[in-house]
Amino acid sequence: MRNICMRVNYDGTRYHGFQTQPDGNTIQDHIESAIYSLTGEKVKLTASGRTDAGVHAYGQVFNFMTESPIPIHRWCLALNAWLPEDIILTDAKEVPLSFHARHMAKRKTYRYSINANRFPDIFHRRTQFHHPTRLDIEAMRKALQLMVGTYDYTSFASTQSQKLNHVRTVYEAYITVDYSFSRPGSDDQGIIHTYVTGSGFLQHMVRIMVGTLMDVGEGKKSPEDIPAILEAKDRTKAGPTAVAHGLMLWNVEYDENVQKT
Questions:
Q1: Is 66 domain-assigned?
Q2: Radius of gyration of the chain from Cα atoms?
């Protein structure tokens, strides 16, 4: 028996999230089907975490058990031939049988992208939320730093969350602005990328954080409101849930010693 760990990129626009759902059409369903087509095995993927419908990934990690003798360097190309063009496997490693993609993940990073230019970018419209009106980016930066730390993030969790413990650690978070798609001499504000790295995340947590940042950017809230929002442990005190398509699972990190080539 072999334990194969893979990394996958996907455009989540037309899928019902990563994890298998009763109505099908998930990233997991398509990858498991591709493995069956390639090896004849019905495997069950274990992912680093789930992503919701419409959310994308640049670095989703999963593992599965197989008895296939296919050389490790051939797995990605072989499976990509069976996958839709918006799901691409980019890396494969053989790992110890004890490796578990979710339990052993140390840090996860998400990126949320806001197009703050006057006009949407037709070529990136599926991965950016378009917000053409003025945002106070510096106030958003200040508010974001006040979300970093170890807190009970109930105010930033979906009311549908089934987790009993809402304490999480956000290790770092920052905002970058890409002006390369902005029109010279215009009032375009660029593409605002918000990166959040943590030990783990609650349902909709990053999207609610970003929705709250947009409230700050619009002047509806101030950075100084963030500590009280955290302390309230009340979802109604935070901002709206930002739309799904601006969110991307950017990276998942593991201890180096849990993998072998």
A1: yes
A2: 20
The CA–CA distances, whole Å, from 81 to 12, 34, 42, 194 equal 19, 8, 18, 33
Query: What string of DSSP letters covers 130-158?
Result: E--S---HHHHHHHHHTT-EEEE-GGGS-
Co-location of 28 and 53 in the same domain: yes
34 and 28 Cβ atoms separated by less than 8 Å = no
Query: Which of the listed residues 74, 104, 134 is the one where a domain comes to its end?
Result: 104
Which residue among 104, 123, 158 closes a domain? Answer: 104
CA–CA distance, 113 with 5 (Å, rounded to integer) = 28
Closest CA to 200 of 110, 113, 112: 110
Q: Which residues of the chain have pLDDT under 70?
A: 257-261
* Number of structural domains the chain divides into: 2
* Interval 53-85: pLDDT, tens: 999 999 999 999 999 999 999 999 999 999 999
Catalytic residues: 52
Q: How many angstroms separate the CA atoms of 174 and 159, rounded? A: 26
| CA 15 distance to own-chain centroid | 14
Surface-to-core class of residue 181, CB atoms within 10 Å of its CB (0-12 exposed, 13-18 middle, 19+ buried): middle
Global pTM value = 0.94
- CATH number of the domain bearing residue 150: 3.30.70.660
- Rounded distance, CA 9 to CA 13, Å? 13
| Residue 261 within a domain | no
> Does 110 appear as a known binding residue?
yes
Domain that holds residue 131: 107-250
- Rounded to a whole number of angstroms, the distance between the first and last alpha carbons of the chain is 16
- Cα separation, 106 vs 42, in Å, equals 28
